[in-house]
Specification:
By secondary structure, this protein is an alpha/beta fold. It has ten helices and 15 strands. The strands form four sheets. It has a seven-stranded mixed β-sheet with strand order 9-8-7-10-11-14-13, with helices on both faces. The radius of gyration is 19 Å and the shape is globular. It binds zinc ion (ZN).
């Protein structure tokens, strides 16, 4: 069930630093899989500062886990989930507009939502004359989506016609879960049209202001991205991250825009600096965090320096 990575998925280095100070608990999903807390841990690559879980659930296990709807623990699609999915892209329209992209007025484009869940996020684009594909493993979410939305579903990119090229690729809180982010970026770089836009959104440890981000991570999450590591994956596959922002969505999330380009993002990758920032972030006292006044600290994570 578990597999141990022997090299960094971003840069290939074998030089990992164990983040023993970050103990996420309790991890209910791990307990449900009869795994102990100490069976997996978080590591930082000392060459590129990418943060990842190791060992982790194997690729085959993860894919079957999502396919049988174990992530959402059941077949029910709640009103909350529908509402949350509907606004995934809509609430980012202003950021897109600031970057010169009018998604609401887009017609005749070919679009992809990677890890689309029920497929509601880009349905408004499907209704406005765009061709929209959604990639999703979860069979029950796809079943619901086929009944309610106009997008075309595929369980993997292999099921999308090979000649399909996209004007817009969107992925929302999906890449932290996949076994290897290189699979997505390799496909996106190949399938994006020249001048097409990739919008990738992930939860990020940087700048988090409540406990929600840390509380949310468990055995189903493999990568803790920030704009540095995400741009590293993009650059590796011929994509240039031309804009990014951190914003509050329950807790801090990173929103990035990329295009096909040989240009590189030259961010600092000093792992000691990244480590110091990570520890400073996760060890903030509760009273220093926003949005939870008067709520006593929970012991859902522990920092030992
Ligand atoms: Zn690395």
């Amino acid at each position: 069930m578990l597999i141990t990575l022997d090299k960094c998925q971003l840069c290939g280095s074998k030089d990992f630093l164990g983040l023993n100070g970050i103990v996420l608990k309790p991890d209910k999903r791990k307990a449900n899989l009869n795994l102990r807390d100490e069976d997996t841990g978080w590591y930082m690559c000392q060459a590129c500062s990418f943060i990842f879980q190791n060992p982790r659930l194997s690729r085959a296990y993860i894919e079957e886990y999502y396919a049988r709807s174990d992530y959402h623990e059941g077949r029910e699609i709640s009103e909350g989930q529908i509402g949350h999915t509907l606004i995934q892209l809509a609430r980012l329209e202003l950021f897109l507009a600031m970057n010169g992209i009018n998604i609401g007025a887009t017609r005749g484009a070919t679009c992809l939502d990677y890890g689309c869940g029920i497929g509601a996020a880009l349905n408004f684009m499907a209704e406005r004359g765009n061709e929209v594909w959604g990639v999703e493993l979860d069979r029950h979410e796809v079943e619901f989506g086929r009944k309610h939305y106009k997008i075309k579903f595929a369980s993997t990119p292999d099921e999308i016609p090979k000649e399909t090229r996209f004007d817009f690729i969107f992925t929302h809180h999906c890449l932290e879960h996949v076994f290897d982010p290189n699979d997505f970026f390799a496909y996106a770089a190949r399938a994006l049209k020249p001048g097409g836009i990739l919008m990738a959104t992930v939860p990020s440890w940087r700048y988090s202001n409540t406990m929600n981000f840390i509380n949310g991570f468990d055995i189903s999450d493999n990568s803790m991205f920030d704009h540095v590591s995400l741009s590293g994956f993009m650059n590796k596959h011929g994509l240039f991250q031309f804009s990014h922002m951190y914003q509050n969505n329950d807790d801090w999330e990173l929103v990035t825009l990329a295009r096909k380009s040989p240009r590189k993002n030259y961010y600092g990758i000093n792992h000691q600096e990244t480590l110091a920032e990570l520890y400073s972030n996760v060890s903030k006292r509760h009273s220093e965090r926003l949005g939870e006044p008067g709520v006593p600290a929970r012991d859902s994570f522990i920092v030992r320096m």
